[in-house]
Amino acid sequence: MVGLGILLGSLPGLVIHMVMMATTTSISLVLVLLFIPLLLGFGMMFQGTLYPVLYKKLTGSSVDVLTQRVLKGRKAAIRSGDFVVFLIGARANNDFDPYYQWMGDSMAKMWKELEDNPDLGCLSTEYYFGPTGHLTVQYWKSLDDLNRYARNMSNKHAGPWANLMAKGRMSSDYGFWHEAFEVKEGKYDAIYVNMPPIHLGNAIGSSLEDCKGKYTSAAGRAGKTDGSDYAKEIGSPDY
């Protein structure tokens, strides 16, 4: 009877303790449930910078080598002679497109061939991948060089081109396109601010110069003015 009395006497305290523990657990659970969406929302806002940085820091599996080549200040791409800007891209129009991987591998072989043989006329190649397809930006010496490479059956382009044309007649699951622009000497504007050498600035035969004198303004770089028409209202072009 004494033991039962002691147990009954301690029961209110035990109940209070259990209620406090349950309350604390509930509060913690609520805080966690509130914190997770906030964290995800914050991450989504900064997914262009936060996620890649955290991934690199935590895994050490990705290193941006271009960071080591950044040129401080405003630089203009200068070259003599005409040239061609060539854009080519592709996209999968079906989640189960059977050609996308094959064509990607074929294009990689083409770019390697062009890089190893600069006499073919390709000055620079850079490519970009995204959720709606991929884009390759190239610079060529001339349209003649570009067309000669594309139609030469001994090069790595003609075979996949013919194969893809045949597949395109049977299915619309895979789309591809290209655009080519002939650019006259000095009739263009190419500026890079705090960037590594890329695109025209990284093409064979190009040089990167400080944006001073006639290269100060966009119109000046395009050969239309002496560069004194810089938009001074946005600040001094002193870097």
Question: Which spans of ≥5 residues are poorly predicted at pLDDT below 50?
Answer: 1-8
**Terminal residue distance:** 92 Å
Query: Briefly, what CATH class of the domain at 83-183?
Result: Alpha Beta
**Count of β-strands:** 7
- Pattern of helices and strands: HHEEHEEHHEEEH
- Can you name the CATH architecture of the domain at 83-183? 2-Layer Sandwich
- Beta-strand share of residues: 15-25%
- The helix tally amounts to 6
Largest sheet, spatial ordering of strands: 3-4-2-5
Helices and strands: which structural class? alpha+beta
Could you estimate the helical fraction of the residues in percent? 40-55%
Q: Indicate the overall shape.
A: flat
The biggest beta sheet is recorded as: 4 strands, antiparallel
Mean pLDDT: 81
- What gyration radius follows from the Cα positions, in whole Å? 30 Å
Provide a descriptive summary of the structure in words:
- The protein has six helices and seven strands, in the order ααββαββααβββα.
- The protein has 239 residues and is α+β, with helices and mostly antiparallel strands.
- Among the domains are: 2-57; 83-183, Alpha-Beta Plaits.
- The strands form two sheets. The chain has a four-stranded antiparallel β-sheet. A three-stranded antiparallel β-sheet has the order 6-1-7, with no helix packed on it.
- The protein starts with a helix and ends in an 18-residue tail after the last helix.
